[in-house]
Amino acid sequence: MIVHIVLFQFKKEHKKANIIQAKQMLENLMGAVPSLKSIDVGLNFSEEERAMDLSIITAFASKEDLDAYAVHPEHLKVVDFIKTVVEYSKVVDYVRN
Questions:
Q1: Pick from 91, 72, 70, 92: which is nearest to 8 by CA?
Q2: Cα 82 from Cα 45, distance rounded (Å)
Q3: How far apart are CA 63 and CA 37, in angstroms?
Q4: φ/ψ bin of 61: left (φ > 0), alpha (ψ from -120 to 50), beta (otherwise)
């Protein structure tokens, strides 16, 4: 199993609305992208300075399935939106035994 985690820090302009829209778009990928086995989208409530705004934890059967997700047209629509509203993001990919 491959786990793909992304943390997002959103721009201040329209931040709450953009977070909600991104969350919905990400959740809609389940069922739309065949290689996506699961997705958990989390909204942050921590007020720590190091906190990020939104996280996703996704799972795939293989690295090839993660690669297929990365270029899937439905995923790319989400990426296009997120690129316009996010300051930066961080990613971790690993194999879960």
A1: 91
A2: 20
A3: 12
A4: alpha
pLDDT in tens, 54-86: 999 999 999 999 999 999 999 999 999 999 999
Alpha-carbon separation of residue 60 from 12, 57, 66 (angstroms): 32, 10, 6
Instruction: Confirm if 54 and 7 have CB atoms less than 8 A apart.
Output: yes
Report how far residue 23's alpha carbon sits from residue 62's, in angstroms, rounded to the nearest whole number: 24
Q: For residues 79 and 32, what is the distance between their CA atoms, to the nearest angstrom?
A: 15
pLDDT tens track for 13-51: 999 999 999 999 999 999 999 999 999 999 999 999 999
In the chain the domains, ranked by start, together with CATH numbers, are 2-95 (3.30.70.100)
Beta partners for residue 41, in sequence order: 56
